[in-house]
Design a protein that fits this description.
Blueprint (H helix, E strand, L loop, with lengths): L2 H8 L12 H12 L6 E5 L6 H13 L14 H7 L6 E4 L8 H6 L10 H11 L9 E6 L6 H12 L5 E7 L7 H4 L3 E4 L5 H10 L5 H10 L4 H9 L3 H17 L2 H17 L1 H22 L12 H10 L2 H19 L4 H10 L30
The structure holds zinc ion (ZN).
Zinc ion binds next to helix 4.
């Protein structure tokens, strides 16, 4: 066996590794772990559904796995791996805006706000636990999901912990928008940017590891925009494809709609956003992929489009919207997405985005204008639960 082949075998994913794709990140982290060069804190950045939490959990299992051979950690089978997977391990804590604050006094002192935020009390809890020896594993692991949602006092408290790291403590911050974290925090973490997972990796993973049939795997891998989390939840949820179809019709209706239709759509986006950020993030990602496909067709790269099932509609749009206008539309959506990350005034953000969208003639997209009687450009907000 050649050295290169030996190395590639050695660097195959351990049996318990669950993250789809992101091989570079996997090798980087496991090499750091196995050569005792693990950082105290990591910042995993990437859009929703890309695999940040999955990677953070794999790392949590790897550092606490009981398999005797370091190269086979995480094994996925030992008591420690299993307890982490089931959320029972005493040394692995996930913190997000819904985590209850343990310290009662701290809880009572927090201001109430309807925004989803990570409060200082949660970071105080983290600091307290981090000062204790691991209870059952080798590392105390803290995963902060939605690190950009930390209020300033929480961020300041975390900074103190990051400045004086305890050994055997691993802190992993997850965020879709690393630029909204204070630089003082970001600079104390090793940053890993998670990029979209290639279509073929996703397709294979969906079949081999999630039991998808070939047809579903192919469709989902193409429209997932590189986000395994999205593909997996779509596979588990029979209504996901239908929701996407509705979203595509909303986009087409907005493209052919009057200014009033567009503003109504913009308002419905901000209404949904208050209850369900994830769905709006999906909708924005769909807008980007829509215009990206129009751009690709304009450049003769039709084989690479994501929304293959809407090929005809994309062609129709591409026939009247030039590549520079499509590129401008992509930028308009991306700038709206960035404004949302900064918690800007949402109705205004969506209205500006819609003003920047090119308009196409209704005759070009028959499906958006009467073809589907039930489809409207507005989006009904989810029911209160
Ligand atoms: Zn294990």
């Amino acid at each position: 066996m050649t050295t290169a082949a030996a190395r590639s075998v050695n660097e195959q994913a351990p049996a318990g590794w669950q993250t789809f794709g992101h091989e570079g990140a996997r090798k980087f982290l496991l090499r750091a772990l196995n050569t005792a060069r693990l950082a105290h804190a990591y910042l995993l950045a990437g859009p929703p559904g890309i695999g940040k939490m999955s990677l953070a959990m794999d790392l949590a299992r790897a550092v606490n796995c009981l398999a005797p051979e370091p190269a086979s950690r995480p094994c996925g089978a030992c008591r420690s791996c299993q307890r982490i997977t089931r959320g029972l391990h005493a040394d692995v804590t996930v913190i997000d805006p819904d985590t209850p604050i343990e310290n009662e006094k701290a809880r009572a002192a927090e201001e109430t706000t309807s925004r989803r935020v990570i409060r200082k009390g949660l970071i105080d809890d983290l600091e307290h636990r981090a000062s204790l020896k691991p209870f059952e594993g080798r590392y105390r692991v803290f995963i902060i999901d939605g690190a950009e949602l930390m209020l300033a006092p929480a961020a300041n408290a975390l900074l103190k912990t990051l400045e004086e790291p305890e050994s055997n403590v691993l802190i992993t911050l997850l965020t879709p928008s690393p630029s909204s974290l204070p630089e003082t925090i970001a600079s104390r973490c090793q940053r890993i940017d998670l990029r979209p997972v290639p279509v073929d990796v996703l397709e294979r993973g969906l079949m081999e590891r999630a039991g998808a049939n070939a047809e579903n795997a192919k469709t989902l891998a193409r429209i997932a925009q590189g986000r395994p989390g999205w593909a997996l939840s779509a596979l588990a949820d029979a209504t996901a494809l239908d929701r996407r179809r509705q979203a595509v019709y909303r986009i087409m209706a907005a493209l052919v709609g009057s200014i009033e239709d567009r503003f109504r759509y913009a308002r419905s986006l901000s209404t949904v956003l208050r209850k369900d950020r994830g769905s709006v993030a999906d909708e924005m990602a769909l807008w980007v992929s829509w215009w990206r496909d129009v751009l690709l067709i304009g450049h003769g790269l039709e084989h690479a489009i994501a929304n293959e099932d809407y090929r005809d509609a994309l062609h129709a749009v591409s026939s009247v919207i030039g590549t520079s206008e499509a590129a401008k539309a992509v930028r308009a959506v991306q700038s709206a997405a960035r404004a949302l990350e900064r918690n800007a005034m949402t109705p205004l953000v969506f209205e500006v985005m819609m003003l920047d969208m090119p308009r196409v003639d209704a005759g070009l997209l028959p499906a958006a204008s009467g073809g589907e009687a039930s489809v409207d450009s507005t989006w009904a907000p989810p029911e209160d639960s």
